[in-house]
Amino acid sequence: MVVSKHLKSGSECPPLKENQLRLYGMRFCPFVHRAKLVLAAKGIPYEEVNVDLVNKPEWYLAKNPPGQVPALEWIADKQTKFIPESFVVSDYLDEFYPEHHLHPLDPYHKAKQRVLTERVSNLITAFYKIAHSEDKAAIDGMKKHLSSYENSLEEKFFGGAQPAMVDYMMWPWFERLPLLADAGFTLDSNQFPKLASWIKSMENVKAVKECKVPEDIMRKFMQSYKDGKPVYDFE
């Protein structure tokens, strides 16, 4: 079951059923997008409960005082389990559902890919500076960070011949790069040919297709966020 509307302050938490994994999220959140990509890539069934991040439900704050998404919740051995944070959620899913590992089994390769994943925070910072303030210096910074990834890409995907955890952890912001066009940034395929090829390959990945929010709807949300009045539920 998918709860399409984002639940707000004053709402009630939907009953949690045994043997059902629940993802708390927000439709447009790239951090939630990470978790959904992992769930889709591994074929894990789950229900989704969306949370209004401006008017957060009291019951959600009781579960997770910072009020952030994503978070996982489930019942095991008659006990309710809860895990927040996109990295933690994604790592847990990869370990608990070992079929089709997304992390490399080799510790060295896993560490190398985790470095790339951690450094995407620099790209994320530049992304939001461009999106919210059209900061020209941030555009130069974005190109610098993209150059680092361009130089690091040695195969079809960052994870090798198939997309791995590193690809899914980075993808949400690359999928959103077209949203920066109006602010003056576009990915130059001549300057970043390997990244441009990677983006095309990722767009054809089944999990990516399943989790994609239509660009026109994403643009509406981004504009509402920029206006200071985020709209989470579009008809």
List the SSEs and their pairings:
Elements: E1 2-7, E2 22-25, H1 30-42, E3 47-51, H2 58-63, E4 71-76, E5 79-84, H3 86-96, H4 107-133, H5 136-152, H6 165-175, H7 193-203, H8 206-211, H9 215-226
Parallel strand pairs: 1-3, 2-3
Antiparallel strand pairs: 2-4, 4-5
Helix pairs in contact: 1-3, 1-6, 4-5, 4-6
Description:
The protein is an alpha/beta fold. It has two domains: 111 residues, 3-Layer(aba) Sandwich (Glutaredoxin); 98 residues, Glutathione S-transferase Yfyf (Class Pi), Chain A, domain 2, CATH 1.20.1050.10. A five-stranded mixed beta sheet has the order 1-3-2-4-5. Helix 1 links the parallel strand 2 and strand 3. Helix 1 crosses helix 6. It is globular, with a radius of gyration of 18 Å. The two termini are 19 Å apart. The relative contact order is 0.13. The mean pLDDT is 93.
Describe this structure in a few short sentences.
By secondary structure, this protein is α/β, with parallel strands linked by helices. The chain has helices at 30-42, 58-63, 86-96, 107-133, 136-152, 165-175, 193-203, 206-211, 215-226, and strands spanning 2-7, 22-25, 47-51, 71-76, 79-84. It has nine helices and five strands, in the order E-E-H-E-H-E-E-H-H-H-H-H-H-H.
